[in-house]
Specification:
This protein is mainly alpha-helical and about 325 residues long. It has one domain. The protein is built from 16 helices and no strands. The protein is globular and about 60 Å long.
């Protein structure tokens, strides 16, 4: 940490400008969860927030419905509940919204699906079957071909689930999945060994989830993962996962970097992943043609870009 602090203390004017931009973008991101909590608890919603807010609200409600189904010993995938349980479901959804990690995940997924639809309509980028995924499916390496096929199915399910404003429990990251089930079990008493809750926990497989498959596919591509940093060739899902892996930042940050007013994060992420300025500019034009790319980015090495991102995250 001392070496990092010293390195940052000798930052060039270009780096200082990027750090200031990152700090501003971080403040914007930091306000997201409190604003979401406020809007979820309020009937008044800004029109500009409706699409993403509705999906976040829907995902929380869907998770609550699944947990109620599990508590009744039913298959959570059926998501069936009596109308008389509506108040119980809504109360449970409100309690789930208090979990900052879960709310952050739901926001990132909602933004991802919203951006994927926008890129489809504006740039013709298919949200499910992108050119790179087709190439990977046809790969001579059986492991990559199988992962790509499974990823195609998982991405198709994700897009459909987002349109229905759903989030399957088994698509949660492991720490969230086990924490939510543990909290629910604690509130409803310890589950019996043969209960639906225990079966759900036993059948959970992070590697088979969409995020797990994306991470595994990027890892299996090894050095070829840089090909996924072309948004129009790789699609948003694979692009975000490759950007997160190669720039060593959380995937949610990589997704949000493609959102409005996060240009410094996108530029630094792509630079940290090893892209040159011309390649970065092409991605900028795809994400937001009106956005201004940081000046003199070529003066920032990939190592310095990672350091700036790490400092902003810390």
């Amino acid at each position: 940490m001392g070496e990092e602090a010293m390195a940052l203390a000798t930052a060039s004017p270009v780096e200082k400008n990027l750090r200031e931009n990152l700090a501003r973008e971080n403040r914007a991101l930091g306000a997201v969860v409190p604003v979401l909590r406020h809007l979820l608890a309020s009937e008044g919603q800004r029109l500009v927030s409706d699409a993403i807010l509705a999906r976040v609200r829907g995902m929380l409600s869907d998770l609550a419905a699944q947990l109620l189904a599990v508590a009744d010993g039913r298959d959570p995938a059926l998501r069936s509940f009596n109308q008389s349980d509506t108040d119980t479901r809504d109360t449970l959804a409100e309690s789930l919204a208090a979990d900052q990690v879960l709310l952050t995940l739901c926001h990132a997924l909602a933004v991802e699906s919203h951006l994927a639809e926008r890129l489809h309509h504006q740039r013709g980028i298919d949200p499910v079957l992108c050119p790179l995924l087709q190439e990977l499916i046809a790969s001579d390496e059986p492991v990559i071909a199988e992962l790509a096929m499974n990823m195609l199915a998982a991405q198709s399910r994700f897009i459909q689930s987002q349109r229905r404003m759903e989030l399957p429990l088994t698509e949660l990251p492991p720490e969230l999945f086990h924490a939510i089930l543990s909290d629910h079990a604690h509130q409803h008493g310890s589950p019996a060994p043969d209960s639906a809750l225990a079966r759900l926990s036993q059948n959970y497989d992070e590697a088979a989830s969409r995020l797990g498959l994306l991470a595994r596919l990027v890892s299996a591509m090894r050095r070829g993962a840089v090909a996924a940093l072309a948004l129009d060739h790789a699609g948003l899902a694979l692009f975000a996962s490759a950007l997160a892996t190669l720039s060593r930042q959380p995937r949610a940050h990589a997704v949000l970097a493609c959102h409005e007013q996060q240009g410094a994060r996108l530029a630094l992420g792509l630079r940290a992943a090893g892209l040159g300025v011309e390649a970065i500019e092409r991605q900028f034009l795809l994400v937001d043609p009106a956005a201004r790319m940081p000046r003199d980015l070529a003066d920032i090495s990939p190592e310095r870009a990672r350091l700036l991102l790490d400092a902003a995250a810390g």
